[in-house]
């Protein structure tokens, strides 16, 4: 973008460019399917979907706690389930060399997944 | 070598190539010429490949061509890489989508696009959560078996979720304070929130040309009031983000 199109800016615009680059990198148009990277690309896609479902479960659980619809035993069980799920996800991320940022998705009005 | 036709824009005038001097140079060093249908035209040039290479240089050249045309005509910019086999195909598209082109050309007539990006360094963890809790349930949760790892995990999660909710509420309020006055000054607008954790607002505004100065001044005023935010306002642009039609 040429400078003559910039009407108003705060300090350097480099920070915005860096941020936008992150979006570009986070959202590849397609899975990288060359033989060396296919496993990484696929694991990233699958783990992103699992993480999405896990986050939705977590949101739903928080709603139930807030609405006071769980008894003590259910709270314990729910806490155990969510904790084990999160730990398992962390293990899988480590195995496939993925970070939270790798699994991020912009869900539009719902905000970022991570 | 086989040649293809790159389409840059649809114009709301029946432009004759011979009338358009000096020539605008298109991609692959071929001059832009005009293919007409009824009272609209397509600005095209010959290119060597049907799949255009993507690079920042080519994208800048493409934008410059559209910009040069926009200085003279009301137009609908075409998506980067719109390539057809020949002029007959270009005319067919204009024939098929004529009424859509006309509708869209009316919308963007005498208007310019502005882009606004807002950066915010607020941290999710800076937000107090107490006000948004259902306190009774929270207290109850805290009173349960204090040694339970799982219960403590849930309390942490609940606090984290509430902190995020407070953060999002704050961001929504900030966005509303910025977007609301600008929306009033624009004909149409597109808003995306939280493009990244830092870019809290990425908006485009279609502004009538006689409102441009007021739009810029209002943005300047908001920037002065919101010292904690970083602003990037660009424009005026051709109406890249306000063309509502698809061509297959």
Describe the structure.
The complex is a heterodimer of chains A (114) and B (248). With 114 residues, chain A is mainly α. Chain A has one domain (33-114). Chain A has three helices and one strand; from the N terminus they run E-H-H-H. Chain A has helices at 14-26, 38-66, 72-95; one strand at residues 6-9. Chain A is flat. Chain B is α+β, with helices and mostly antiparallel strands. Chain B folds into two domains: 4-109; 112-237, Alpha-Beta Plaits. Chain B has helices at 56-70, 87-96, 98-108, 135-143, 149-185, 212-225, and strands at residues 4-11, 33-37, 40-47, 75-77, 83-84, 111-120, 188-193, 199-208, 229-237. In chain B, helix 5 (149-185) packs antiparallel against helix 6. Chain B starts with a strand and ends in an 11-residue tail after the last strand. The chains are: A mainly alpha (114), B alpha+beta (248). The A-B interface holds A 1-2, 5-11, 13, 15-16, 19-20, 22-23, 58-59, 61-62, 65-68, 72, 75-80, 82-83, 106, 108-109, 111-112 and B 60, 114, 117, 119, 134, 136-137, 140-141, 144-145, 148-154, 157-158, 161, 168, 192-199, 216, 219-220, 223, 229-235, 237. Strand 1 of chain A pairs antiparallel with strand 9 of chain B, so a sheet runs across the interface.
Task: Jot down its keywords.
heterodimer, A: 114 residues, mainly alpha, 3 helices, B: 248 residues, Alpha-Beta Plaits, five-stranded antiparallel beta sheet, 9 strands
How do the strands and helices of this protein lay out in sequence?
The complex is a heterodimer of chains A (114) and B (248).
Chain A: E1 6-9, H1 14-26, H2 38-66, H3 72-95
Chain B: E1 4-11, E2 33-37, E3 40-47, H1 56-70, E4 75-77, E5 83-84, H2 87-96, H3 98-108, E6 111-120, H4 135-143, H5 149-185, E7 188-193, E8 199-208, H6 212-225, E9 229-237
Antiparallel strand pairs in B: 1-3, 1-4, 1-5, 2-3, 6-8, 6-9, 7-8
Helix pairs in contact in B: 5-6
